[in-house]
Amino acid sequence: MQMTALEIAEACGGRILCGDPQTMITSVSTDSRKISPGALFVPIRGERTDAHAYISATFAAGAAATLTQNDTEKQDNHVWIAVPDTVEALRRIAAAYRSRFTLPVIGITGSVGKTTTKEMVALALSSRWNTMKTEGNQNSQVGLPLTMFRLLPEHEVAVIEMGMSDFGEMARLAQVARPQYAVMTNIGVSHIQQLGSQENILSEKLHITDAFLPGSILFLNGDDPHLAGLRHRMPAVRKVWFGMAPWCDYRPEQIERQGDGTKFTAHSPWGSVTVELPVPGAHNVRNALAALAVTKELGGDLQEAADALAGYAPLAMRQQIHRTAHGLTVIDDSYNASPDAIYSSLEVLGGIPGRHVAVLADMLELGAIEKKAHEEVGLCAARGGVSLLVTVGERARWIAAGARSYAAPPACHSFRTNEEALAFLRAHLQPGDVVLVKGSRGMHTDEIVKGLL
Hints:
Layout: E1 3-4, H1 5-12, E2 15-18, E3 24-25, E4 27-29, E5 39-41, H2 55-60, E6 65-68, E7 79-82, H3 86-98, E8 105-109, H4 114-125, E9 131-133, H5 143-148, E10 157-161, H6 169-177, E11 181-184, H7 192-195, H8 198-205, E12 217-221, H9 225-228, E13 238-242, E14 251-258, E15 261-268, E16 271-277, H10 282-297, H11 302-309, E17 320-323, E18 329-332, H12 339-350, E19 356-361, H13 370-383, E20 388-392, H14 397-404, E21 411-415, H15 418-428, E22 434-438, H16 446-452
Parallel strand pairs: 4-5, 5-6, 6-7, 8-10, 8-11, 9-10, 11-12, 12-13, 18-22, 19-20, 19-22, 20-21
Antiparallel strand pairs: 1-3, 2-7, 14-15, 15-16, 17-18
Helix pairs in contact: 1-3, 3-6, 4-10, 4-11, 10-11, 12-13, 13-14, 15-16
């Protein structure tokens, strides 16, 4: 990126306190430990730390300018820009930078599966175009603006992951990224503690369309009941459907499990194509269908997109399948957890031969439904043929209770900590066991995975 300090101040309504307004800014960072020469530092006040304390260190590391909401006067050779709120200023600067580009932007949202869908969509698009995508899951009120600064003139399309956990957040992100196309994967119960209902979650996520233009397209999962309810709503927005339902525009047939992968035929209004994914699960079939739909509707080739998807590799802690020297198969899905995500993971577990072991930790931010949601996950695990269920955390004891309510329950063992669960697993796992490990990010169940590998 390249913006002068004056352009940045004008974009965010800031006031330059000192330094040369023509100073060229070539990057933006909120992390004082990751400063490159020419950077703008954006210090953010956190619950425990105010990053304004690190401004001097960023200048020593080569930063050319800083925002500040703590200062109204300053004498320095470096550029200081005073703003009322650094996070809001960051969004406004990112929106101004985004406005310099006319390339297609595809926003990706949904309660679960955003990151995997984003990766597949970007991979399929890259078969034809120079594609910029969100790194990891930088989809937040801070992460998304930082992503926009990675846009370069040579990029031909951008795939932007857009997450939200409260009212108003998606609308703010849409004003920054301004996607002309959007993919919605599903409407689950993630963050329902803050948003109150799935209807509210849907309503908030639909703000991803706030910057739509004539010709924009909303890609929707027809298998999700809340999204399917949009079939006869929003008549002004063109909708393209993907999913297993026979009425979907992009739908699969002849789905076959092939080792750790999946083969299927994708049907579309433009013809059919065989897709071979190196990952299992019906949810990944839907993700791939979304990728094919976006690529084709933007003018790409279905076969080229399918060929690209054959090279997909899951990101860390997202259903990565490891085989250990001790004869275990470990499914590392420890990045995060919600009921819908666990249901998909249990399906993957059930498709791999062996004794099925599920290690499930607390699911967070479920509010009033948390007890019922945990119990239903346990019942699903029991019905799915899990032989050994290990739970971690106080809430996860409800998962064990749900499993025990099944007519033929698995052996259930509950622990308070990852360390206790790992010690039990090491003592009781056998060669040939298939072990799923999953829990909310705050439960750090990747510690269990590391202990098993």
